Amino acid sequence: MSTQLKNLSDFSHTTVPSGANYTFGIIVAEWNAAITGALYNGALKTLLDHGVDEANIVSIPVPGSFELTSGADILLSKRKDIDAVICLGCVIQGDTKHFDFICDAVAQGVTNVSIKYSKPVIFGVLTTNNLEQAQDRAGGKHGNKGDEAAITAIKMVDFSANI
Predict the structure, then answer these.
(1) Helix ranges restricted to H, the chain
(2) Which of 141, 117, 131 minimizes the C-alpha distance to 10?
(3) How distant, in Å, are the alpha carbons of 42, 67, 92, 128 from that of 99?
(4) How does pLDDT run across 27-47, given as a tens digit for each residue?
(5) Contact in structure between 52 and 22 (CB atoms under 8 Å)
(6) Active site positions, annotated
(7) Is 105 exposed, middle or buried (0-12, 13-18, 19+ CB in 10 A)?
(8) Distance in angstroms (rounded) separating the CA atoms of residues 113 and 80
C-alpha cells in the first residue's frame, strides 16, 4: 500500500498562500460524526492557521455525505461572498453497493457544483474500506484529510484570484 506509514497531510514541500482575503464554506456530514468531526476540526484549524478570519468561515452540517452536494449548491446560491466550499464526509464500505453509489454521486456532484459556480468546491470525503482506515485519515497516522481539503481550498481560491 502506497500510504503505509505516510502522513499524507505534510505540506512542507509546497507554499501555501494566505487565506486572509477569502471567505470559505465548510459543509460537513453528520453521518460518521466522530470521523467527520475530526475532519472538520482539522479543516477549521488549518484555515485559521493560514490567516482566515473566523468570521469568514461559514460552517453548515448536513445529514450525510450524499447531501454535501446540495448543501454546497444551496450555500453558493445564497451566499455570493463565498470563495470556496469544503465538503467533508466519510463513507465506509459495507456489504452492499450503496457505498459505490454514494461515492460516485458525491464525487460527480461536487465537480458539477464547482463547474456551475466557477468556484472551488473541494472533495474532502473519505471513502474507506473500514473504520480504522477512516480514523487513520482523520487525524491518525496518515494525517487529516480535513487539513488537506482546507489547504486545497486556499490554494485553489488563490489560483482563481490570480489567474
Answers:
(1) 33-49, 68-78, 98-117, 131-136, 145-162
(2) 141
(3) 24, 14, 7, 9
(4) 999 999 999 999 999 999 999
(5) yes
(6) 98
(7) middle
(8) 14
Residues in a beta bridge with 86: 26, 122
- Nine cell digits for residue 6: 505516510
- Residue 4 makes CB contacts below 8 A (sequence gap 6+) with none
Flag whether the pTM goes above 0.90. Answer: yes
pLDDT digits (tens, 9 = 90+) for 124-149: 999 999 999 999 999 899 999 999 99
Place of cell 463565498: 82
Distance from chain centroid for Cα 38 = 12
Cα→Cα distances 145→76, 80, 135, 158, Å: 22, 26, 10, 20
